[in-house]
Design goal:
With 166 residues, the protein is mainly alpha-helical. The protein is built from eight helices and no strands. The chain has one domain.
């Protein structure tokens, strides 16, 4: 019940604070929405290119080759071979990894070691390349620096720790 009231109360508090400070709330909303549309238009070409590249990778079999390449290393880390494709694909595609988790849940069950590791991998990592694409297309400096390697290392650490604890 408290969850149902959280958003309306938050909006009401925002409206009261704006009225208290005598801010033109509607004008500020319209201005912010206009800036949001500009950012969306700026991000859209990069996002479309990335999604096309991921679709081409999946259609050409490159993602399967990548999974086959990374599989032995992930097995050495203690991850079950059934979860290795999920760990490999999670940084690339959220929908493919979600479908993979659903498949693992149907076959092995959510309380199995494989199910627990799959859920932890899904929850402890991000679609790194999608996120970097969106953020870097919204700023002028497009150099990612250490962002991608550190994010990949963090996702790998989450996967490895899930295999240690489950």
């Amino acid at each position: 019940m408290l969850n149902d009231l959280l958003l309306p109360v938050l909006i009401l508090l925002l409206l009261c604070a704006a009225a208290w400070k005598r801010l033109p709330l509607y004008d500020l909303f319209v201005s912010g929405a206009g800036e949001g549309v500009k950012v969306a238009v700026k991000v859209l070409p990069n996002l479309a290119g990335m999604l096309c590249a991921i679709s081409l990778m999946e259609a050409s079999g490159l993602t399967n080759a990548l999974c086959d390449l990374c599989g032995p290393v992930l097995r050495l880390m203690g991850l079950p071979p059934e979860v290795a494709p999920l760990v490999t694909l999670r940084p690339l595609s959220g929908s493919a990894s979600l479908g993979m988790v659903e498949s693992l849940m149907n076959v092995y069950g959510p309380d199995s070691r494989i199910g627990l590791i799959a859920c932890t991998v899904m929850g402890s990592s991000e679609t790194i390349f999608y996120t970097v694409c969106v953020y870097m297309s919204g700023v002028k400096d497009r150099r990612t620096g250490y962002a991608v390697p550190c994010a990949l290392l963090g996702a790998l650490a989450g996967a490895w720790l899930s295999s240690v604890f489950f």
